[in-house]
Target: Lactate dehydrogenase-like 2-hydroxyacid dehydrogenase
Amino acid sequence: MPHDLFLATAVSPALELLLAERFTLHRDAPPPTTRAIVGGGQMTVDAALLDRLPELEIIAIHGVGHDGIDHDAVAARGIRIAITADILTEDVADQAIALWLAVGRRIAANDRAMRMGNWTVPLGRRASGRRIGIFGLGRIGQAIAKRAEPFGGEILYTARSQKPVAWRFMPDLATLAAESDVLFLAAPGGDETRRVVDAAVLDRLGADGVLVNVARGSLVDEDALIAALESHRIAGAGLDVFADEPDVPYALRRMNHVVLAPHQGSATREGRAAMAAMVVENLEAHFAGREVPGLLA
Ligand code: NAP
Model:
């Protein structure tokens, strides 16, 4: 008898097919016999849901974010969490660099201008030699730093602890923002980082500063960001993630110094195929009693 599996969010047709070959899938009302949950990095798993699923053994995330999961409730029930670690790191870092360059060199704005028949456009901003600030120096943060190194600027970062790297550690986000020309966000969402990028941090980033967020929309006070962009207290923003996805405020959509992406950090054909395979491997390894490669420590 295949195990019952709850699909907490929509997943790609390819992953759904792989799961349907191995499990009995449930989309709306998971039965109490559910042994596994699968969903994207933004799924919510709270204590009320867990109370209805006494046989649940594993939550397999199609992604690496897990800020929507009640970790205390999961740990209290001995349920495992597995993520698709390492597979999407390089793609998300590519997206971060692409957004930075797209804002600075006005790639999207100039493309729109040309399609309207315009040839004369405002100047962009130089990418080389800039001070690159990275908030969260984990897998994605380090991959961003490595990509930024050849641009010849200084690389600064902050995280919960200092790392054994050559890049300069800053004691906190406000200091990092003040010292940076570009501020990349690569820390997890959740209560600890909720709206840490507020009006004060944006003011420290300053009128020549660019914010790039490939982490979670929850890290940014979106109203404060809109206000800073509208009054040109920062130079621009490249945003892959938003406070209330898929709703993106009109104010962000109408500004030319903002480049938007609909949460595409890991959205490459190669990455998504590898992520789907790893979700399946995490589940199969768990149910076969093997080591689960993406087990969250
Ligand atoms: P990771 O390897 O766990 O790294 C997270 C980093 O953030 C670590 O350096 C950690 O510091 C730091 N951090 C955690 N809490 C912090 C806090 N309160 N203040 C400052 N720094 C803090 O995670 P990752 O794989 O790089 O992924 C990072 C995030 O990117 C994910 O959580 C996810 O939300 C997001 N993401 C987005 C996309 C997308 O499509 N846009 C795709 C994948 C992931 P320490 O090392 O000192 O603990």
